[in-house]
Amino acid sequence: MNEDKDEYISRLKAKMDELNKDLDKLTDEAAQAEGELKDEYQQQMLDLRKKLKELEGKLSAVQDSGESGWEDLKQGMEKSWATWKKSFSRAKEEFEKAYKEGPRKK
């Protein structure tokens, strides 16, 4: 499937909206931790939000690019997206495990 620029942007915006909701849920779960563990989780959430903002900036660059240059920006966006998704998945797994165990101190 050869996706055009507008379709690509719409698809990524929808993914980012979904991930923002997931990140909000994780943030709520992280808030239930205690002590140093809570501090660590909150820092991870801040880091993920910062990375998501960077992705949003890259998406804006793709959106503002001309038709001839957007494919190059798309490749960079895909690499950044994969990195963010991996970081998010790792944090989500950690939080889900800790959430099942219940609030605890480190």
Verbal overview:
The chain is elongated and about 50 Å long. The chain has one domain (5-101). It has 106 residues and is mainly alpha-helical. The model has no long low-confidence stretch (mean pLDDT 82). The protein has helices spanning 5-30, 35-64, 70-101. Helix 1 runs antiparallel to helix 2. The N and C termini lie far apart (48 Å).
Distance between the termini: 48 Å
Count up the domains. Answer: 1
The main pleated sheet reads as: none
**General form:** elongated
Low-confidence stretches: none
Percentage beta strand: under 5%
Find the count of extended strands (DSSP E, 2+ residues).
Answer: 0
Q: Could you tell me the mean pLDDT?
A: 82
The radius of gyration over CA amounts to 16 Å
Q: What oligomeric assembly is this protein in?
A: single chain
Name the helix and strand elements from N-terminus to C-terminus, one letter apiece. Answer: HHH
* Helical amount: over 70%
- Report the total helices: 3
**Helix- and strand-based class?**
mainly alpha
How are the SSEs placed, and which strands pair?
Layout: H1 5-30, H2 35-64, H3 70-101
Tags for this model:
106 residues; mainly alpha
Produce a short descriptive summary.
The protein is mainly alpha-helical. The chain is built from three helices and no strands.
